[in-house]
Amino acid sequence: MVPRYGAGALSDVVPSLLAALGVAGMVNVLGVPSARRACLLLVDGLGWELLREHADAAPFLASLAGDPITAGFPSTTATSIAALGTGLTPGEHGVVGTTFVAGEDMVLNALSWSHHGAPSFTDLRDTLVPEEVQPHPTMFDRAAEAGLTVRVVAPHEQQRSGLSRAVLRGAPFAGVHAMGDLASASLDALRSADRVFCYSYHADLDKLGHLYGPGTEPWRLQLTYVDQLAASIARGLPKDTLLAVVADHGMVTVGDEDRIDYDTTPSLSAGVRLLGGEPRIRHIHTEPGATDDVLAAWQHLLGDKAWFLRRDDAIAAGLFGPVVSARVRPRIGDLVMAAHGTAVVVRSVVEPVFARLLGQHGSLTTAEQSVPLLLHSS
Fold first, then answer.
1. Nearest 5°: CA angle at 190, between 185 and 191?
2. Which of 100, 130, 222, 259 could bond to 276 as cystine, CB 3.0-4.6 Å?
3. Residues 153-185 pLDDT 10s
4. Which residues form a coiled coil (predicted)?
């Protein structure tokens, strides 16, 4: 499922909202109704198919007008937040996965902004400066320049994170601790001025999906709480305000039989210089001259469990958007693997937490790519 960049993807959401708020130069691709204020509530992990399947657990969200859009590639949190924060495709903003090559021999974890695979945590905010890794102006920069009051409402520990600096800069940050203050801070932002754009983020549904699997009892109960969160914000909206609810990706459940361990399978690592991505999508950077042999080895082991594309073919297919800049191109693997079904390529040594998770995402299946865009106006 190739993302519908420019016609219905996460990178189109904030430009459409800002156009609806009257910001010049923004294109309302998604046909968002006009308003004076807007709150974009991102519910991490709430895929369209999951919401439809479990609509009884989220009656308010299920009642809202909306359609599915596509996440982008990879369908993962860091890439999706970058799309929302910048209004750009992965080929432009450059956050091409949870982990990706940034520099000659460095794999960056975009969520922790650390050296991925290092024996101990290495903070890279001074080495790989976030504002240089993603140098484009954000949507918050653009909105503030147009005279809007802007605000980010998100977990307090994310305030100065590398990812926040890279893709959410330009707005005052309201750090929150739970659903109650997330709703309250969002409403405070919306009431603070006549023209407002507020971005609010909730992470716990994704966390429980990873730990227990989407659709399980803990996940469904959390979805009910998320539904109440969205309804609470909707009830408190000032006049002429739009609430838009989106997700960054869906999720699939994987079992032990679905896992292939890169760290204990020598045939997978032979000829591989660096490995980025995450279990459902891998950027495979090969040693000089080894690409053909690496492709053959991975295809032999995974068979029909994954798609494989060479870098040029992945770019030509539009997986990263219509434009891939020279700055971003080296971050894409010489080979790109995107898993079918519920297969994953895990790393039990380097990524022990990722390797154990029951819920996974990142690939091109509709379960992962299709996310809701739900609208409510006051």
1. 95
2. 100
3. 999 999 999 999 999 999 999 999 999 999 999
4. none
